[in-house]
Amino acid sequence: MNILIAIPMTEEQKKTVSAIAPQAAVTYTTADDVTQEQVSQAEIILGNVPIPLLKEAHHLKWLQLNYAGSDNYAAPGVLPEGVILTNASGAYGLAISECMLAGTLALIKRLDEYQVNQRRHIWQNLGQVSSIDGSTTLVVGFGDIGSSFAQRMHALGSTVIGIRRNVTDKPDYVSALYQMDKLDELLPLADFVALSLPQSPQTRNIMGEKQFALMKKSALLINVGRGSAVDTDALVAALNSTSIGGAVIDVVHQEPLPADHPLWDCPRLILTPHVTGNYNLPETLVRVVNIALRNLSAYLNSGEMESVVDFKTGYRKL
How far out from the chain centre does Cα 207 lie? Predict the structure, then answer.
């Protein structure tokens, strides 16, 4: 059995791989250095390898992604028929939800504006701020990331409403769960609208001119899922006209964002270059590797694997 690993691992983690699969031939590489020959020979691949190389993955039985997003790999024709696809859902909730919370607090306490005044050497009280306590948070997309953010907002006194595909199992920290067809009805209630959605035809531009008009004038938009969920032109217009209170954006429709794009200069915007879910928090990589190792053990011992992707939906199976 050939196992190809393109996830960074410590020597100790590599020893665990050897203990789980003592008879396997294991090759360690990176996504940048992986070769077509390595992919073609592998029965198991741990890590996101370039999609074009998978066309020749004739021996592949299982691909473990190191990201939660799996839409590109689940697309028709990318993987050979019968290949198991698993993602790293569960690894990113901590890092991303903390960034979401940090951006939210920065905006409601006007720290972005005070930062501008600091650079201008202006000592000025900017006046009224708001609080998470007593607010309403609408979380759109209730996987690991959305639920992690929901728990943090609930702990700080916000009433949390969720939108997800499956509404039968409601956590205690959520006031109510709905499906996507209720989005427009719920937007006027929310002080914070948090998107953590994977990319799909159903989620494209779900936040557009109409939806921004439905939001409270003081409400914040937080998007950490996919940039395609938000109509960027509509967001620029909403921020510049102050028809919403601000936005925390880690993902945009076109990445990298062109240097001359008007989004850069919008007021009340915290914009990061798709970094909240990287390995900047070391614990994230630890969690990714642990998911891969647990799934490797399950695969080799006919156990139940976690975060298996449903090719029909592109989402993790419930």
Answer: 17
Smallest Cα–Cα separation from 192: which of 109, 113, 101, 291?
101
Q: Is 152 a catalytic residue?
A: no
Q: Please pick, among 154, 226, 287, 316, the residue that the annotation labels catalytic.
A: 226
Please state which architecture CATH assigns to domain 2-91+281-300. Answer: 3-Layer(aba) Sandwich (3.40)
d(CA 88, CA 54): 19
Active site residue 81: no
At the topology level of CATH, where does 93-271 sit?
Rossmann fold (3.40.50)
Q: What is the mean pLDDT of the chain?
A: 96
Of the listed 58, 165, 185, 255, which one is catalytic?
A: 255
pLDDT in tens, 89-145: 999 999 999 999 999 999 999 999 999 999 999 999 999 999 999 999 999 999 999
Look at 5 and 68; give whichever has higher pLDDT. 5
Question: Could you state, in order of their start, the residue ranges of all structural domains in the chain?
Answer: 2-91+281-300, 93-271
CB atoms within 10 A of CB 243: 16
119 part of the active site: no
Q: Do 2-91+281-300 and 93-271 agree at the fold level?
A: yes
> Rounded to two decimals, what is the model's pTM?
0.94
Residue in 59, 261, 268, 274 annotated catalytic: 274
